[in-house]
Amino acid sequence: MSTLSKACKPLLVSVGMISIGIAGLGAPVATAAAAEEAAKMTTDGSDPYAWLEDVQGERPLAWVRERNAQAEAELAATPAFKTLEADIRAILDSDAKIPGVMKIGDHYYNFWKDAKHQRGLWRRTTLAEYRKDKPAWETVIDLDALNKAEGENWVWHGADCLKPQYQRCLIALSRGGADADVTREFDLGTQTWVKDGYFRPEAKGGLQWIDRDNVYVFTDFGAGSMTSSGYPRIVKQWKRGTPLSAASVVYEGTAEDMYISAGHDPTEGFERDFVSRTIAFYNNELYLRGADGKLTKIDAPNSAEKGVHREWLTLELREPYSAGGKTYKPGSLIVTRFDDFMAGKRDFTVLFEPTERSSLAGTTWTRNKLVLNVMEDVKYKLSVLTPGSWQRSEFVGAPAFGSIGVSAVDDDESDDVWLTATDYLTPTTLSLAKLGQQPETLKTMPTFFDGSNNVIEQHFATSKDGTKVPYFMVRPKNLKLDGSTPTLLYGYGGFEVSMTPGYSGGVGKGWLEKGGVYVVANIRGGGEYGPRWHQAALKANRHKAYEDFAAVAQDLIARKVTSPKHLGVQGGSNGGLLTGNMLTQYPELFGAVVVQVPLLDMKRYSHLLAGASWMAEYGDPDTADWDFIKTFSPYHLFDAKRDYPPTLFTTSTRDDRVHPGHARKMMAKMLEAGKDVRYYENIEGGHGGSANNAQAAHMSALAYTFLWDKLSK
């Protein structure tokens, strides 16, 4: 069972071995209604920059290219930039990176990008080979070769292979890295695309196997088939050999829903089909689909994450839940037998209950065990439970510090797990662990930067309302507390996403090796202390996330780690909204601001791309909610009369999750006001900002070059 991911990661309803998923924050072109609305605003003067919302328009793209050229001339022309870009590119292209694998049948599959394979290889090996320093890999799909043959710019979006034979796979490919993708059928036995096989045209959505001759399809079926968020509203069953138009409707949601999907759990002895109706973030319904097509709702709270694994139903609660004469706390993980629950019984066992300092970070099922991953003050601890008795034991061999990840190797067959561990200064290790035994280290990421002169610390800042806010700091061991050290503060603060320690060669090369301090803030809106930490900064309380972040900045200044002219801030997506608010609400605290793939115009956000899907997080600007939303809308908070620190906006034309118009319009407004601002938009790349390693290295080097130039003076 996988956990419910948030925000920029896929939002998943976990059902046995299937994941019914959608992308979090988000078509590279605005809807006709949105385009008409933007044109009207440009004409009547209510938003003179609305014309920049035309993503692929000739005039906006000419504007983008002009801004790009200016940013390149300022930041990318120096030898120092070229060196940093090459260093980051070498890290991304390194053959020594850990090739993470997924077991499919008897082989272990990996998707790999390097200097020779910019778009990547889908390849496989055996476990015996994988244990070697240099495994022998068999290429299954060469995406660069496919692009050349087809004249396309495909970006890998994943593979779903049909159990138990694992011969047929559904391959998702995206043009330029957008969320919208196509699905094509591939034969693993012959390693060829299946002639006249399943093919889903480009759209947001997906296919899920039922059996070899049937799939669930949720996609754009034409007018009225998508939600206001731009995701599928209808799921159908599609029989092989028939046209997509002949697929039969399984379930229809409403236009106001967020996402409708379905999936099949093929676990032997526990085969089941489910339909998922996601109404909004953390608001979903799950239905069991019978052999006759009848849907039976799993009568659990909409806010709970529902997991079905073999005979068990787990609920991860976000609100108090009363059942069977008991009330369970938000943040708890409770379990019961699935068939008993469907029969009306409500006898749960509590597997985890949060404290003020702890939260559930994740769960992993193996064949006979359940592994719990718990965070206490953003530090991980693993335990192993035996289903039925739910007897608890420690996870043998887990590290005491850093970020720890656990995933099952094959939860149908074994209790083996993959164990990853990392922190800001320790390269990631990948181990193979048999539960109850010491893990076997298989792979270690190389050291990409010299961190020997650095140390990691955790501190707590006091926010405006008295809340203690943790943050991690990576600093030189000989740091002088005189306020002169260039310091980069990073954060996110939304969608219950936790910011945990991780090794980054880019941060190391671009910042730490130069002597800078790197800080990551665990502000409210995230998931570091479970649902309550997230819910504390929703909608009208959004300001608390920004007060938390400002408190961390103020704490760094008060302790003389740095000073405003040497303190920079960086964040992307919802983190771009965060840094946009730092720019407009706390400009006196910062010497430079980087705003990446951001939300900024919070009056328009719900009308642009997937914006409507985030109203549970921010509110609906077309209602009285605007009274509080306008207090954190950087586009509206900008005041041409105020002084602002130097700013860099970056985004992607192909981002079909967060509309590039946010960054374009904010840039235009600040530029016209004569502010110290620059802009770079990658012409492809999706919400991640880049479609290959070269683009990723270039954009990272732009950001670090800008920040170091402004903060080190």
Plain-language structure description:
With 713 residues, the chain is α+β, with helices and mostly antiparallel strands. Among the domains are: 32-89 and 459-711, Rossmann fold, CATH 3.40.50; 98-189; 355-444. It has 15 helices and 41 strands. The strands form 10 sheets. An 8-stranded mixed β-sheet has the order 34-35-37-36-38-39-40-41, with helices on both faces. Strands 7, 8, 9, 10 and 11 form a 5-stranded antiparallel β-sheet that branches. A 4-stranded antiparallel β-sheet has the order 3-4-5-6. A hairpin with a 2-residue loop joins strand 27 and strand 28. Helix 3 (79-93) crosses helix 15. The longest helix is centred in the C-terminal third of the chain and has 19 residues, at 693-711. The chain is globular and about 65 Å long. The model is unreliable at 1-31 (pLDDT under 50).
**What average pLDDT do the residues reach?**
92
Query: Would you give the CATH topology of the domain at 32-89 and 459-711?
Result: Rossmann fold
Shape: globular
Number of discrete helical segments = 15
Helix content: 10-25%
How are strands sequenced across the largest beta sheet? 34-35-37-36-38-39-40-41
Q: Report the β-strand fraction as a percent range.
A: 25-35%
Report Rg. Answer: 25 Å
CATH C-level category of the domain at 32-89 and 459-711: Alpha Beta
- By secondary-structure content and strand pairing, the structural class works out as alpha+beta
> Sheet bearing the most strands, described?
8 strands, mixed
**Straight-line N-to-C gap:** 50 Å
Q: Low-confidence parts, pLDDT < 50 over ≥5 residues?
A: 1-31
CATH architecture grouping of the domain at 32-89 and 459-711? 3-Layer(aba) Sandwich
Q: What is the strand tally?
A: 41
CATH homology-level superfamily of the domain at 32-89 and 459-711: Alpha/Beta hydrolase fold, catalytic domain
